[in-house]
Each structure stands twice: as C-alpha cells, then as structure tokens.
Amino acid sequence: MKKIILLLALFISLASISFAQDDGGHYEGDGNYYGEAPTVQNENESISFGKSIRSLIQSTSIGSSILKPTEEEILDKQEAQVQQIENAYKTKLKDIQVTTAPIWQNIIMILVGLLLVWLAIAKGFEPLLLIPIGMGGILANVPIANIGAAPVIVSINDLVVTITQGGFLGQIYALGIETGLFPLFIFMGVGAMTDFGPLIANPKTALLGAAAQFGIFFTVFGAIFMSKYLPIISFTLKEAAAIGIIGGADGPTAIFLASKLAPQLLGAIAVAAYSYMALVPIIQPPIMRLLTSKEERMITMKQLRPVTKREKVIFPLTVILLVSFLLPDAAPLIGALMFGNLVRECGVAERLSKTLQNEFINIVTILLGLAVGSKLAADKFLRFETLGIIVLGLIAFSIGTAAGLILAKIMNLFLKEKINPLIGAAGVSAVPMAARVANKVGLEANPQNFLLMHAMGPNVSGVIGSAVAAGVLLAILG
User: How many CB atoms are located within 10 Å of the residue 322 CB?
Assistant: First the structure.
C-alpha cells in the first residue's frame, strides 16, 4: 500500500507541474511577461503504410540498391534536412533569447529535482541515475546563473564564431547528448556487464523480448490520437515516436531516439523512462497477477543448458553483422552493445572489460544524468505535453509488460515443455530489475520456482529489441 501511495504521489506531483501554466503566458529574456505562450503546432506530416515499408526497405543494405530513391524522394529528403537545420537554428536562437523564467516556476522544478533525489536516496529507485538527473534539474533552475544554457556557435562568412559559451551543464549536453555519444557509451558498458548465455541457451525466449516492444508502436498511435482529440496537447509524428520508445524501458535508447527525433522533449522523455524503470517492482506485479493464473505462475522450468565460450563469442559478432546488413539505423546502438559484450566474452581483454564495467560506465552515467537533468529547465518542462508524455509512458510500459505475458501464454499452447508466462514480463529491457521481479512473483506462487536465469533470456533480448525498434522508427521518420 505504501508503494502504491508513493507512486500516486509521484504522478500527482508531475501532473500538477504540467498544469502549472494555466494562463498560457510566457516570459522572454528581459523578464517581462508577454501574454499567451506560443504553442507547438502539430506539423502537417503524415506517412502512409506503403511509404513506411518503402522507407524501411530502402534503409537496408539490399533494399537501397533495389529500391533506389525517386527524384521526389530525394527532394523531400533535402527539404527535410533544410527544415532540420532551420529548426536547430531557431532552437539555438531561443536558447539565447529565453534566459529567465518566473521564479515560482524555477522553485517548482527545483522541488521536482529534490523529489527525484529523495526517491533515489530514501527509496532506492535507480539512484545511479536519478541522483545526477535530479541534481542537474536543480542546477538548471538556479535563477540567472544559466547553468543549463547551451553553447551557441555559428558560422558567419565561413568564420566560426562562438556567440555564447553556455553553462557547464549545457556544454556537457552538447558534447554527449546532441552528438548521441553518451547513450552509445552507456551501451558499451551495458554490453560488458551483460551475459547473453540464457538467451543463447533458450533462443525462443527472444520472441518474448520482441513482443514486449509492442508497447512502443501502440504508444506512437496513442500519442497521435491524443494530439488529435486533446486541443491542449500537440505532438508531431516524430515526437510521438520518441515518446513511444519509453515502452521499451530502456533509458539510453529513449535518450538516443529523442535526441534524434524530438530533442525539445528529451528531459520529459528521459525522466519518464528512468522513473518507470525504477518503478518496475511497483508497476509490473499487478499486471502479472491480473493476466496469469496461480497455476501458470507455479510452472517450473528445467535448468538451462551450459553455453560454451565459443557460442558467447560468436553471438555478438553474428548480431552485429545481421543488424548492420538488415537495419543499419540500429547499428550504432547494437554495435556499441555487442562491442562491449565481445570485450567481456573474448577472455583476452580483461582490463578493457573491467574498465567498461566500472570506471567508464560510471563516468558516463554521471555526465549523462547531469546532461538530461539540464533539460528540466522550467521553460522546457512546465507544459501540458509533459503530462501527456508521463501518461503515454505508463501506457507503453504496461502494454509492453502485458504483451510479453500474453505471448508466453500463446506459446504454451504449442510447446511441449511449458514456459512460465511470468518471464514474458521481463521482455521489457529494464535489466536486470524486470527479471528479478518475475523471479520474485514466481517464488510467491511456488517457493521452489527459481525463474531468474530463465527471465534473463527475454530481458536481454528486450535490450536488443528496443534498439531495433528505435532503428525502425529512425529508418521511417529520421
């Protein structure tokens, strides 16, 4: 009951700040109030199913040579690139112009930062990430200091000119988030810390990891639906895709995709993604008990076969080649993940493996958390869209959990050796927390039912699945 009350308190606090700007006013850099705030209009962008499939095929190595882009597609791509440059320029210009927010908004966001720090310290919710994110949010909202302001560098007559250096958090953000480096670095460390043995020993559990990604695509349509029928919320197609990736419960992937498709929503998306990852022990058990019977939760699974070193070395190399060949847009994330895993499993690079698992990922985690926290500035976070992201993120996560459970139940209709449906819930890529929750719920039904290693199969496949889903969305919309 205490956990449920805590969860409700978190949602209520985040919802309240989203509705804080009830008069639509905004403040410019001179501190004056300028009436109704400019709303983010939904772009007149649409994409047909056929066009989506064509874009996806063209993003593959074979498809690019078979389906060569038409002249119209080339022009559309060039126009999109020009529009992207213009949007980036406008964003930079806004960073220069909008330097202050009402003090009461800064106070609200500082309280949000303190709430994240409290959840991390007092409740143990993802402390390695929520502490730096919370502190980044606090620092970004210190009035006048502009600690989270981004550096602005432009080219004038072929001469590179630095207009403003920005704050130190803004510089970290530009270095690691805008470039997409930090999520890739995190994936290297995650790969070095991950044992793909359970997945190799029981490959059919990869289907459960794939099923859990259903929440991502369902939420994309949910964001579009919300934008259409709720006048106070407006998401573009790219923003909807960036929000949907929260359903994968994979923070680095969410940050990577949001930085590419919807950088203006990065702060809210990152906080929602990591908050739901931290709340896995609260969100998932009720869904597990609702969709499974006690008899299903009591199903025991036989011990997994031993996996050889050769298999563990071949696996990352095979995955890299397949993804690079079939879906190049997912290659950065998958490549970084599998590189870290290869360093772990090869057995001849112990120093590199230990560095990736410890010093490297710890340093990047600190910088990543602070950079994400810098986007919790009041003028970027206090919007109705923030509440939409929080609601859609919860829906995405819940549907992903349910999809894994349901597919496991369907598979049992055809398998001689039944699998415990609980391991399907571990298909979301919150490693290893989702697997631990599946094991805990299984032990409640049967004290001799140890599901941890079995749940790790879909759990690690979910990491791969979320990266592939991000690649698909980038291929279609990027």
Answer: 11
pTM of the model: 0.79
Distances in Å between the Cα of 335 and the Cα atoms of 87, 219, 316, 393 are 29, 26, 9, 26
CA distances from 472 to 153, 194, 272, 385 (A): 32, 24, 22, 24
Measured distance CA(130)–CA(215) in Å, rounded: 24
- Mean pLDDT for the stretch of residues 299-320: 93
Mean pLDDT for 148-177 is 75
The first and second tokens of residue 10, run together, are 């978190």
According to DSSP, the residues that pair with 153 across neighbouring strands are 162
pLDDT of residue 23: 41
Pick from 386, 444, 453: nearest CA to 419: 453
| 235 sits in which H/E element | none
**Which residues, 6+ apart, have CB-to-CB distance to 456 below 8 Å?**
195, 198, 199, 426, 432, 435
Total count of residues recorded for the chain: 478
Q: From CA 177, how far away is CA 385, in angstroms rounded?
A: 21
Q: Could you tell me which residues are beta bridge partners of residue 160? A: 155
Q: What is the overall mean pLDDT for the chain?
A: 81
Q: Is the dihedral of CA 398, 403, 409, 412 positive or negative?
A: negative
Contact 275, 246 (CB under 8 A): no
Q: Which of 396, 400, 101, 138 minimizes the C-alpha distance to 272?
A: 396
**Calpha distance 31→327 (Å, rounded):** 48
Asked whether the beta carbons of 238 and 261 are under 8 A apart, the reply is yes
Cα 121 to Cα 130: distance, rounded to the nearest angstrom = 9
* 262, pLDDT greater than 70: yes
Which class for 70: exposed (0-12), middle (13-18), buried (19 or more C-beta within 10 A)?
exposed
Torsion sign over Cα 264, 268, 269, 271: positive
Q: Which of 242, 185, 286 is nearest to 375 (CA)?
A: 242
* pLDDT score, position 316: 96
Among candidate residues 34, 14, 15, the one with its CA nearest the CA of residue 25 = 34
- Strand (E) or helix (H) holding 314: helix 309-326
pLDDT in tens, 446-458: 898 889 999 999 9
| Residue that the structure tokens 């210009």 belong to | 93
In whole angstroms, what is the distance from residue 372 CA to residue 219 CA?
22
Report which residue type is found at 224: I
Collect all residues with Cβ–Cβ distance below 8 Å to 351 and sequence separation of at least 6. none
Best CA proximity match to 183, nearest among 332, 328, 60, 74: 332
Q: Please give the single-letter amino acid code of residue 358.
A: N
* pLDDT confidence of residue 94: 54
The lowest-confidence range among 184-193, 407-416, 428-437 is: 428-437
* Residue 25 backbone dihedrals phi, psi, to 5 degrees: -75, 165
- What mean pLDDT do residues 133-147 have? 89
